Structure formats: structure tokens, C-alpha cells
Amino acid sequence: MYSFMGGGLFCAGVGNILLIVSTATDYWMQYRQSSNYMHQGLWRYCMPGKCFPHNDSIAHLDATRALMILSLLACFIGIIIGIMAFIHYSSFDRFDKTFAAGILFFISCFLVFLAMAVYTGVTINYYGKRYGNWRFSWSYIIGWVSVVLTFFSGIFYMCAYRMHECPRSANSH
């Protein structure tokens, strides 16, 4: 049980760090315009030597930002509850912390998956038709890696919950 929880905490910790890096950096997309490479993130777009904030309220960027921040919060709270389960902190007797941490990691995974899907769909639909020389960049790729890591942290915690619950249910009969 503890090995699953340790693996879940490791994946969640790395996933949360990658979520922070992905959300905060400006390399979600790179494109070439008039022989210069430019890049943009969720918060700013950058031209050679200078970056500017996104002043317009662009719906897909607002949705992606909100979903990424909610995912960060869910993952962070899941880590806190996962640590409490790991050290047997018992402030609530009827509250199974391994199950709650696993659910929070799955919620985080779903939210970041939704954010990445919104960004991908709109970006491909908009930039794919207007610009020929663009590509997704490393911040975007890190976002997809965090989807996988938060998913596996949820799997690990659900496995730990099942291992913890099976002896209990066998003893009750």
C-alpha cells in the first residue's frame, strides 16, 4: 500500500511542478512571421527581444488558464491529503484520505486534459488555417506530460485504497 502511495505522491509532485511550469511559461506555441520566430503562452506573446501581455480577453485562453489553475489546485490539495494519508493523520475517522487523494488526482487530470483539448482544438483550427509555419512548443508538451502523471497518481492512490479496503471487507464477513 505504501509503495503505491509513494509512487502516487511522486507522480503527483512531479505533475504539479510540470503544471506550474507549463502554465507560467510562454512557449505553448511558436510561429514564424516575417522571418522572425515568435512564441506565445497563456499569459503573453513574445516577439524577438520583447514580450507583451494578452490584452484582449480571448475565450480559449481564458478557459485554458482557468482550467489549468483549477487543475493545479486540485493536484495540490490531493498532495496534501495524500501526505496526510501516508502519515496516518486522523482528524476525520470516516474520511478515507487515500480515496479522496485519488479522486482529486483524477479531477486534476480531467481538468488539465480539458484545458489541453480546448487549447489544441482552437489553436489547430485557427492557426492551422491561417499560418503555415507554426508548431506547439515545450510548455504545451509539458502540459500533456502532466496529464499522464496526474492520471497515474490517481491510479496509484486508487490501488492503495483497494489494497487498504480489501482486508477490511474480508474481515467484516
TrEMBL record:
GO function terms (MF aspect): structural constituent of eye lens
Keyword annotations: Membrane, Transmembrane, Transmembrane helix
Gene3D superfamilies in the record: 1.20.140.150
Pfam families: PMP22_Claudin
PROSITE patterns: PMP22_1 (PS01221), PMP22_2 (PS01222)
CC per GO annotation: plasma membrane
Subcellular location: Membrane
InterPro entries attached to this UniProt entry: LMIP (IPR003935), PMP-22/EMP/MP20-like (IPR050579), PMP22/EMP/MP20/Claudin (IPR004031), PMP22_EMP_MP20 (IPR004032)
Protein name: Lens intrinsic membrane protein 2.1
Source organism (scientific name): Dicentrarchus labrax
Gene name per UniProt: lim2.1
